[in-house]
């Protein structure tokens, strides 16, 4: 990148501002700040874009998009600066100055990375926070939309529903998740059995590569376009915006919830569900949540399996289908509700149905500490295995834990596993995500909750995929393996890489080697180039 000469005035203003705040900076920090301030237009812009640690707004900006309070403790490494660009030139300038002065760049859209990789690093780093890149342009005539990476899924759904009630987008159920990170890992929700992943429905993108070039699908090439749709974020470049294909939905859909606890044969019903759910018509989404709940016996606990779903159709059609294919569930009309697709977004997001405006509220859900792990299941788990799973949810550490289990099949069976980096397609009955949560005040006891999660994962070993034991990259799990900060060999990264991407990991490494051979864009589980620069130097 080449830049024109700039006035020293903006930098001098920053010097005065930092002097008044008492901030003390080392030479590399000053050099970075000098570099960036010279490239921003004026003091007013700098004050809206650069947040240093002594800035009164630094903590609020940092914490605004932290959705796992396990990584918001006093001991958590903090960025030297947070950059909140207002336009593309600010992004390019941040990239340029970070490279020039040796700061690792962590890119954050919604901040839902469950291992905190978009806002935590063990080496000196800067956060590039895309919170101002939230524009969404919906074109109902051509059934497409452009969405910037900093927009949340809730903002996207809201924008679509404001224009039409018969188009939607197949992405996740949590409305506060950022589009950029979600799309980068694949992204599934209530429409994925009908239309595939969010990434399957991306048709163009606007990205800045490591050299500062602004690229679209044509100029980046099909290999890079393939890689950014499921290969994980913060790896191949900075994706600013995505062009997505909207999908048709009926004006009325039907949702349902049926709860079954252990005393109501939850184990047997879930066992039966495994044989049926993936074979049901692709118009039907079904998942199961396993949680601990209060028992009907005072002071006692039990385990509940919550069967939830949505049919792209009316209630009569749904009841007829379930009574025919899965009568064990006992679905009745009182378990069902007809509504619009956008109301179903609120329903599955655990939000009140009265107003869609809540989709614009990034703070509508409580923020807790958590640890997540994931599996894919290809053969039905025997009843004895399910009984053991249920019993683990009666343990003390599982008071705020959940196993989320969406049925696969449908469109997912039709897409080859090398179509995109996300490989978990045909042959999977369901995916299982194990999440344990605790309050920020309990962070001192986090080890016992994480230990429970790991024991549950270990218990599930005989019942899940093997060679590799597959995992979903959007539920990152550093227990699977991590990169070194400097040189990471292909063999070392393969330990976790094949779990997320199977054989697609090989192609991802080839793409990375081509577009970012010096491995500037990196984190603990980013795709490494085939031969890292440190290795070339003989280190």
UniProtKB/TrEMBL annotation:
InterPro entries: BBE (IPR012951), FAD-bd_PCMH (IPR016166), FAD-bd_PCMH-like_sf (IPR036318), FAD-bd_PCMH_sub1 (IPR016167), FAD-bd_PCMH_sub2 (IPR016169), Oxid_FAD_bind_N (IPR006094). Pfam families: BBE, FAD_binding_4. This is FAD-binding PCMH-type domain-containing protein. Residues 75-249 form the FAD-binding PCMH-type domain. PROSITE patterns: FAD_PCMH. It is found in: Secreted, Cell wall. Its cofactor is FAD. Keywords: Cell wall, Disulfide bond, FAD, Flavoprotein, Glycoprotein, Nucleotide-binding, Oxidoreductase, Secreted, Signal. Residues 1-26 form the signal peptide. Belongs to the oxygen-dependent FAD-linked oxidoreductase family. It comes from Gossypium trilobum. PANTHER family: OS08G0158400 PROTEIN. GO terms for molecular function: FAD binding; oxidoreductase activity. The keyword Disulfide bond applies. Its main location: secreted.
